[in-house]
Amino acid sequence: MDNFILISGCSGGGKSTLLKALKARGHHVVEEPGRRIVEAEQASGGNALPWTDIEAFLHRALDLAIADHRAARRLSGPVFFDRGVVDAAVALRHVTGHPEAETLAGDYRYNRAVFLAPPWPDIFTSDEARRHGMDEAVAEYARLEAALPALGYDTHVLPKAPVDTRAEYLLSVLADAGPRPDEPAP
């Protein structure tokens, strides 16, 4: 799906902030599945949390990312995803050894250009929904950085720059690849 733009990469690398900026510009955005799951599990007293039952958490993340992908098909114009099916599948493969990523990557595609938020210690913070440290975030980034090209994606590393600069970079890369996401195709 050429209009599905995946923003992936390091936890705490500024993905959610970038999505807020894109949403403020009028674009459709899909928030990160993991944060939504953590909030729901904490509110209900559930155990599908990364620090309690990582495998259950990742299965839920994968299911939610698939549901998001399907729901976004009803939207017109570009849709920007804060993580997606690929992220959840790569993490699940890392934890369980199951090769879901290869199968699901073919069924739930995004634009070939995927944007990676690199490790950025200056902005990384832990919080109630992100309890892991920078080392785990960097390892996660390395797995995604290796997996995405193997799954047929071209990765573009977001600059460590103010959010408006990041948004302009992302939109310019997409413009070079075809119609600009904020403009209708001719």
Provide structural commentary.
By secondary structure, the protein is of the alpha/beta class. The protein is built from 7 helices and 5 strands; from the N terminus they run E-H-E-H-H-E-H-H-E-H-E-H. Strand 4, helix 6 and strand 5 form a beta-alpha-beta unit. The longest helix has 19 residues, at about 55-70. The model is unreliable at about 180-185 (pLDDT under 50).
Number of domains: 1
- Mean pLDDT across the residues is 85
**CA-to-CA gap between the ends?**
18 Å
What structural class do you assign from the helix and strand content?
Answer: alpha/beta
How many strand elements? 5
- CATH topology type: Rossmann fold
Number of contiguous helices: 7
Which CATH class applies here?
Alpha Beta
What sort of overall outline do the alpha carbons produce when their principal axes are compared? globular
Name the helicity range. Answer: 40-55%
**Low-confidence parts lasting 5 or more residues at pLDDT below 50?**
179-186
Pfam families: AAA_28 (PF13521)
Organism: Hyphomonas adhaerens MHS-3
Protein name: NadR/Ttd14 AAA domain-containing protein
Keywords:
five-stranded parallel sheet, alpha/beta, single chain, disordered C terminus
Topology:
Layout lengths: L3 E6 L5 H10 L3 E3 L2 H12 L9 H19 L6 E4 L2 H12 L3 H8 L5 E5 L16 H17 L3 E4 L5 H15 L9
Parallel strand pairs: 1-3, 1-4, 2-3, 4-5
InterPro entries: NadR/Ttd14_AAA_dom, P-loop_NTPase
Pfam family, one: AAA_28
Protein name: NadR/Ttd14 AAA domain-containing protein
